[in-house]
Every structure is written in structure tokens, then in C-alpha cells.
Amino acid sequence: STAMLDVPFLPFCAFLGTLGLLCVAMVGTWCQHWRGGFSLDGSSRTFNWHPVLMVTGLVVLYGAAALVYRIPNTWSGPKLPWKVLHGSLALGAFVLTVLGLAAVFCFHNSQGTPNMYSLHSWMGLGTVLLFSCQWAAGFGAFLLPWAPAWLRALYKPIHVFFGSTILMLSVASCMSGINEKLFFSLKNGTTAYKLLPAEAVFANTLGLLILIFGVLVVGALGRPSWKRPDSDSLDSHQVRDALGG
């Protein structure tokens, strides 16, 4: 039975990538079809950039960055190119996240709506701040040439732990944000949230898919057979060579 449940990594990645793209497509469809589309005029259509950018950056792209070292091709040869790819994907996710935050603050300020009063906003901003600290610490420990080997060895399990923690906080923030948006938007008549209109079914399904994506990524990160074997690679020398040192 254990062998039957043993899924190869690459087909699993293909499924996970499809699921991630589906989440992005669904959040874009929700905002375009039910919430009026996108603009930069400070209206609710400006807000619509917020869920799209957050799901794309803080969940899907961040999840892809987390799984880079599970690719079997990374297990041999120089580690530096994969470090750069991992850091670049995470940086891309961070840029999209900052743009998503800018969209919601722009909308709130133009409409006279208070900022940072809900549990969703507290959780989301806390996640972004933790993400920024994680990226900066990872850059300093693993990419800069003067980081000693003992420091990398000491910080590595902390980096891995907070990587999974940030992803699950991102998932929780997105799910709470979807629920909050539905409560604010579906209030009256036949569109009341409690009557479960088509928009509510669609957005609730999106939330569940985001949750499944996050759980699968964390599960993949914790699977021992998919972890990169430890080696005595001279990472610091690779970085010095790349920097011309």
C-alpha cells in the first residue's frame, strides 16, 4: 500500500503547477466576471488587483520558490544557480505582494475606508513582514560571500521552518480575505451570501483550491525522499567565483 501511494516527484509537480495556474485563473475570473474587472482609478476595480496579485505572488510563486530544491536536477552539480533561482522566484513573489498591498491601500484611501482594522489585514501584513525578513536573512546567509559555513548550517533549519510557516500564513490570509470580500459584497436581495449564489460557490471553491495547493506544497517539503541530499558543496567558493572574488 505504501508503494501505491508513492507518487513520482515530477508528475506531482506537474499536477501542482496546474493547480496553481487554476487558482490564478479562478481569482482573475472572479474579479473580472463578478467584481467588475481591473483599473488604476482608485475604485473597486483597483482593489481587484489585490486578490489576484496576492494569490499569484504570496501563494503560487512563493510555493514554486519553495520547491526548487526538491527538483532532482538540483541534487548534483553547482548549487549556486539554484540558489539564484530560488531567491529570484521569492523576490518576484515579494514584488507582486507589495503591488497587491499598494492596490488595497490605494482603494481604501480613495474611498475613505480605514486601513488595518480587520483580522485579515493584520494577518496579511504580518505575513508580508515575515516574508521580507525571511528573504533578507536568506540572502545574507546563503548568497553573500562572507557568510561562514557554520552560520549557514545554524540558520538553514530556521529558514526551512519559516518558509513553510509563511506559506501557510499566506494561504490563511487569502482564505480569510476571500471570505471577508464575500461578506462585504453579497449583502442584499437574491445575492445575499447566506443564499449561496454562484459567485459565493465559485469563490469558496477558489479558497479550497488555495488550501489544497498550500497543503500539498508543505507536504512535498516535508517528504524525506524528496529532500536534497546534504553534501559538502563549496557554496561560498561558488559565490566568490561568481562575484569575481
UniProtKB/TrEMBL annotation:
Membrane protein topology class: Multi-pass membrane protein
Record's keyword terms, sorted: Electron transport, Endosome, Glycoprotein, Heme, Iron, Lysosome, Membrane, Metal-binding, Oxidoreductase, Translocase, Transmembrane, Transmembrane helix, Transport
Reaction(s) the record says it catalyses: Fe(3+)(out) + L-ascorbate(in) = monodehydro-L-ascorbate radical(in) + Fe(2+)(out) + H(+)
Entry EC no(s): 7.2.1.3
SMART domains cross-referenced by the UniProt entry: B561
Transmembrane segments: 7-29, 49-69, 89-110, 122-146, 158-178, 198-221
Obligatory cofactor(s): heme b
Superkingdom assignment: Eukaryota
Entry's localization field: Late endosome membrane; Lysosome membrane
InterPro entries hit by this protein: CYB561/CYBRD1-like, Cyt_b561/ferric_Rdtase_TM
GO cellular component, one term: lysosomal membrane
Domain Cytochrome b561: 15-222
CDD domains: Cyt_b561_CYBASC3 (cd08762)
GO terms, molecular function: metal ion binding; transmembrane ascorbate ferrireductase activity
Pfam family for this entry, one: Cytochrom_B561
Main localization of the protein described in the UniProt heading: membrane
Protein task: Transmembrane reductase that uses ascorbate as an electron donor in the cytoplasm and transfers electrons across membranes to reduce iron cations Fe(3+) into Fe(2+) in the lumen of the late endosome and lysosome. Reduced iron can then be extruded from the late endosome and lysosome to the cytoplasm by divalent metal-specific transporters. It is therefore most probably involved in endosomal and lysosomal cellular iron homeostasis.
Subunit structure: Homodimer.
Protein name: Lysosomal membrane ascorbate-dependent ferrireductase CYB561A3
Species per Swiss-Prot/TrEMBL record: Edolisoma coerulescens
